[in-house]
Amino acid sequence: MTQLANLTERRAIIDACLAMNRLGVNQGASGNLSMRIADGFLVTPTSLPYDEMTPEDIVAMGFDGTYVGARRPSSEWRFHRDILRARADVDVVLHAHPTFATALAVHGHGIPSFHYMVALAGGDSIRCAPYATFGTQELSDHALAALDGRLACLLANHGMIVLGKSVKAALALAVEVETLARQYLYAQQLGEPVILPPAEIARVAEKMRRMKYGQPIDDNDAPEDTARPRA
Ligand code: 13P
């Protein structure tokens, strides 16, 4: 029997899906995840509970929409394909139905800059893409537009999409976006919270870039503007 290609990547996808549910950013068999490979991308199969998923179940797809494997690809393969094709800056697309982010999205609300951590998603807001039926080209087009210049968006009456260079980065950002949605919903109990102006979010984004915020510190490449390790 021939060795299954991209076994490490297939295992990483399953681990990330299990983590997604464990961390509370998704539940059941909803959500899906894809990862760029040399000649296309890997994507989770449709409608299969993550705890039953094996590496063989992960589907290998080309950017032409053809696939190889015993399972059918996620019903959302179009937006995975379109995002990976359009965004050379990311290698992983994560889609989930987190409770708090979805609670905002069913009202068509994105997340404004009520908290500086919104800048982690790449801009001064996390947009909410207009509603379209799941799995359609229309939904993919809306998602791609809402993700312009961003690493995350909400999908009206549906859920969220998060992008990353790695599975670990996408998962961490998914947890952050869901936390922001929860904080924003709680904050709204006292009325609309204070919104930070775009200039402050730009300052935060620049500081995050300079500090390599959220990335492991390499002592040999200590970013400016941070505490120094004692010699
Ligand atoms: P799939 O099981 O087809 O990936 O669909 C789940 C989902 O979340 C659709 O948006």
From TrEMBL:
Classification via InterPro entries: Aldolase_class_II_sugar_metab, Aldolase_II/adducin_N, Aldolase_II/adducin_N_sf
One GO CC annotation: cytosol
GO molecular function: aldehyde-lyase activity; metal ion binding
Gene3D superfamilies, A to Z: Class II aldolase/adducin N-terminal domain
Domain Class II aldolase/adducin N-terminal: 11-185
Superkingdom of the source species: Bacteria
UniProt keyword list: Lyase, Metal-binding
Gene Ontology biological process terms in this record: pentose catabolic process
Protein name as catalogued: Class II aldolase
